[in-house]
Design a protein that fits this description.
This protein is α+β, with helices and mostly antiparallel strands. The protein is built from four helices and nine strands; from the N terminus they run ββααβββαβαβββ. The protein has helices spanning 38-56, 65-81, 128-143, 158-167; strands spanning 19-24, 28-32, 85-91, 97-107, 112-119, 148-153, 170-181, 184-193, 211-216. It has a nine-stranded mixed beta sheet with strand order 7-8-6-5-4-3-2-1-9, with helices on both faces. The two termini are 32 Å apart. Mean pLDDT is 81; it is low at 1-20 and 201-218.
Amino acid sequence: MLRLQFGSRKHIDDGGPILFVKAMTDSLLIERIRPEHAGRFFDAVQSAAPQIASWIGSHNAPPTMEDVRSFIREWDEAWESGERYGFFAREESADACVGFGLLNSIHPRYRIANLGYWIRPESAGRGFATELARQVARFAFDELDLVRVELVIEPTNTASRRVAEKLGARQEGLLRNRLTINGEVRDALMYGLVPEDLKVVSGGPGAGYKSVEKRTLC
């Protein structure tokens, strides 16, 4: 069973600080992305840039170290304001960044958000994307008190669709002209995830937390 202890629950309109967390699963260490992650994040982006640009847009693959620092600074400031949340992920046994998770398009009134993720190619096929997405979703439900997260995925992005399905998200329909990526308008599938849908694969990656470290941002 998962032992998730991100901290005391905060409603997204409370105005107080969200706890900074380091959540260590059996396979990944997941934490709020911060300026000190710039070097490792840049390395991961360079590796994954073609995939990132193709599926979620080139603006999510900053090409230079200066651009990466600006990208992280924007996400750091957005976390403070509650506008969006970015998560840096690395293997427990290594120092390198394996991917990035995010919550954005947060609607406080309806308590919903968009969930996204990417994993560098060298780390693909090891369950990391599913584990990262699962913990970002749990953060949304347990820490932000959201009632639904949405995953908007191109029909041809079979790897990302598999991740959504492993989470327990339900495909709810085809949205015409839903995405504009690098100036190209594309259709997308809508996957919806609510708290009772969230699945944990017994014995798989992230089946339980080994430790959690947290501190309050003041």
